[in-house]
Amino acid sequence: MYQYSAFDQRFVEERVEQYRDQTRRYLAGELTDDQFLQLRLRNGLYIQRLAPMLRIAVPYGLLTAAQLRALAEITRTYDKGYAHLSTRQNVQINWPELRVVPDILADLAAVQMHCIQTSGSCIRNITTDQFAGVAADEIVDPRPYCELMRQWSTYHPEFDWLPRKFKIAVNAAQADRAAIHVHDIGINIRAGDDGRPRFDFLVGGGLGRTPVIGSLIREGLPEQHLLTYLEAILRVYNRYGRRDNKYKARIKILVRAMTPEKFRAQVDAEWEHLRGGPSTVPEEEIERIKACFVPHPYEDLADETHLLARQRLADPAFNAWMRNNVAPHNRPGYAIVTLSTKATGVPPGDVTEEQMDAVADFAERFGFGEIRISHEQNFILPDVPQKHLLAVYELACDQALGQANAGLLTDMICCPGGDFCSLANAKSIPIAEAIQRRFDDYDYLHDLGPLDVNISGCMNACGHHHVGHIGILGVDKRGDEFYQISIGGNQAEDASLGRILGPSFKRADVPDVIDRILAVYVDNRLDGEPFLHTVRRIGIEPFKTHVYGVAQPPALRRAG
Known about the structure:
With 560 residues, this protein is of the alpha+beta class. Helices cover 36% and strands 17% of the residues. The protein contains 18 helices and 21 strands. Helix 6 packs across helix 8 and helix 10 packs across helix 11.
């Protein structure tokens, strides 16, 4: 992974001291709330419903064991002993005192971390596939290009004050695990006819109040033009994006207003002035950054299929975990492990200091000291020898991280909602817990198959409800909390936005509604047909009819 240069380290440390003085001046009454607002936002500090929230940058979701231990220690020292994994592969702490935030930033700088540009109208954390560099279906390792964009975008003087926040996601595998269709810019990297990487650009995707699937505006761009083309897109956005109304300021609104075709023409015209210019990336710079991501010293391991088969046969729970939480690695004898944070009764994405320390230990003992954070708010161990999978599973279970539910219904994406966020219309966490408890039956979950449930507490869509196979949105009705249900969304390569079933429901009714939706699926699916495919085949009407036409909640169905 990328390591700070002496310049990087000095830059981050100086930034900490600048913010320490800004905080001192604010607490002394020398800066007003309005004057301090942008200063704290540029250092990742929000004022939430109950306390400040600090968002810590985890570039493209990649952490070392030492960094994860530092995060655990920060939660012990300055917070309440836990942190939250976000859908943009960052880490958030929810209870820091404003006066100690500079101390937290200093502790982060000591392990090459920071909170720069984790909020504000700037380019945010660039995200990618949590399996990057090790995925069996990977075409190109996207991490060097993410790092190149991170260095380019950090305090870029031209794009430090955009009309609105800006999010970039990168995919370089056959399966899109980065949700590139619903980002301001989504980049798909593939191999060209000459074997060299080629970049396809989707622009104007996003969720929130106006959900939009991104439009393809450029295909097959060579890698040396990556930054100049990004600059062309951002210049057009900076020039024409609305600044008079924050609800209409995202690039998706601009692309929609211009039409994708006219937006593409504007970008191409701008790019003609930029291509071949100073931001053209020389091959030696690409190779320099790639050198930070050389493969680990993998052993020449035999495939442990026979050993794993015996272990799986002897332990059904381990077999279930292997089926859902272990993915193929691109090296023989290794595997990728997802450690689920979605234990019943725990807010999705919340992790304790003890869990963080344990995961850091796992990474060193069973890998190369590396951890990833996934878009689904889970931890990833990217390099586990197959012979150690049973030991990892048993240790994960001891830490409540061994749930065999990755990709299943209870592996929900959920925003903090009204329990923490001042923007939320309704609480998200109690809904997630009610669903977890209602469907806490592995056999039933496995029978249902892959199923994404996404929960947001308001239209800002931090829980990405629009692209959940089942999406749940908290809404306010005359001061009461209600929940709107949609189905048929998808964040992957065949991305789609969910369709709203109809009128919203009270909190207590949501588990029953989910049960009715699943009953329609089970009754109508073809052999082995996933939920999403059934919805697309039969349409929304059968679900509507059953959800709104049933007078009494049905008993929970179990596959038999």
